[in-house]
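Input record (Table S2, row 508):
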Amino acid sequence: MQIIIITIVSIVALLVALFFLPIGGNRRKNLYTSNDAIQDLNFKKDFLWGTATAAQQVEQLQPSDWSAFVRKTVNEKKHAAQDSGDPHPGHILGLDRYSQDVIEKNSNFDEFMQQDLKAAANMGHNSYRFSFSFSRIFPEAGGKPDKKGIDFYHKILDECEKNNLKPSATIFHFSTPEWFWQSVEGHKGWERPDALEHFGRFIDLLVKEYLPRIDHWCTLNEPMVYLYNGYLTGLFPPNEMRGDVKNVTSVVEALLRAHMIAYDKLHAAAQKLNKQIEVGYTKHTRAFEAYRNWSFFDRLVAKKVEQAFIFDFMDAIDTGIMKISNTKVHKEIPGLKGKTDYVGINYYGRFYVKAPFSNPAKFTILSYDPDDKNEKINNLRWALYPVGFREIINKAVKRYGKPIYILENGTADDSDDDRIRQELLITHLRELALAQKDGADIRGYYHWSLVDNFEWAEGFDARFGLIKVDYEDGFKRTRRPSADIFKKIIEQGLSSTDYLEAVKKYSI
Ligand code: BGC
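Output record (beta-D-glucopyranose complex):
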C-alpha cells in the first residue's frame, strides 16, 4: 500500500515538475549571440542599404483619415498619456507642445526632400524606402487623380535617381483618404463593398505612372499593427474597439485581397514591360517571450501570441487560407496562395508575455522588465533584444523559404549622442550578418528612419531619425552620430575590432 502511495505521489510530483519545467533553460536568453568567436562580418555586394519613411509621417498633411484624426485631437486637446506613459485611445501624445506649422507639415519632407535624399546618399545608402499617400493622389471620392500629387512622387524618384538610391515603394502604410471612410451600404473603409475597386484604381495609377521607375514594391506595411490599433485598441483611425478579433475578419480578408490585387496587377504590367520586379509585404515582428520562464502559461501564451500577431497573416499568404487564431475563421482565398516574392520583416525588439494561472487568457504584454536593471530601454520603454532579430529571420526562412528584406529596424532615441541607436545598429547588424551566415537570403536592410517624424499616436516626441529634425528651428536637420556607424558598416562590413570596441563602449 505504502509503495503504491509513494509511486502515485512521485508520479504527480514528476508531472507537476514537468508542467513547470522551462523549455530552453531556467533563465532568460542572452540579449546577443554569444561574444565567443567574434569574427569579421560582411554583407553581399548587391545588398540594399537605406532608410524607410512613410508618407503620413514625413509629408505635409494630405486629406487622409490620419490627418483628420490629428486635427481632431488638436481641436479637442486630446494629448494626455495614461499613467504608464502610453496614449489613451483616440489621443495623440503631446501635440500641444508643437506649433501648428509642425503639426501640418510633419518633418516637412515636401520642402526638405532634396536635402534629405542627398544626405541619405552621403551617409552611404544605395536605396530609399518611401510610401505613396493614397489621399495625395486621390484626394477626392471618385475623382480624378491629382496631377500635383502624381508629380510629387515623380520628384522623389528624380531625387532618388540623382543620388543613386534605388527606390523601394510601399503602397499602404496605415493611412487612407478621408473619403474612403464615408459609409456605403452601412460600411466604411476596407469594409465598403467598393473598397477594393478603389484600391485597384489606385494600383492602376501607380502602375501606369511609376512601374517603369520602380523595381521594389511592398504592398502592405504591418497589417497586424493596423488591424490591432485601428480596430481593437482604438489608437489608430478608425479608432474602433471591436473587442474580439473575430469581429475584424472582414478587414483581414480585405487586406489579404488588397495584397493579391496589387501583386497581380504589378506583375501583369511588369511582364508586358519585360521588367523584373519584386513584390512582397512587410510584417511587424517582435520576439514574444515568457516573462517568467518557469511559468508554463507564460511560455504557452507567448507562442500563441506569436502565431496570432506574426504568423497568421504570413501563413495566409503562404497557404492561401485565412485562419485567425482563437477563432473558427478558416477560409480559402482563391488565387492568394504563395503570392509574395519575398518576406519583409520589421523588427523592434522583445515583448514579454505574462499570463496569470487563474486565467491565462487575460494575459498582459510588457515591452520591458522593470525589475531587470540590465535592460537597455529606449524613449518608448522598448528594450533592445538583438538576438531575437536573428531568430525571427531564421524562423521566417524556415517557414516560407523566401528571400528576406528587412524593411524596418530602429529605435526611439532623442539624444544628440544617440547611444541606444548606435548600439542597436551594431548589435542588430551583427545578428543580421549571422542570420545571413545561417543561410538566409537577405537582400536589404532599411533603418527606421531617415529623419525624425510623426510617430502616430505617440506624436512627435519619439525620435527615430538618423537625422535629427529641430521642430523649433525651421525643421533644421542635424546628422546624429549613429549615421556614421551605419555608414562604416555599409562600406566596410562589421570588423571584429570594431565590434570588440563596441562591446566595451556599450557594455554588450
Ligand atoms: C511602423 C512605422 C513606425 C515604426 C516605429 C513601425 O511599426 O511601420 O510607421 O513609425 O514602426 O514605431
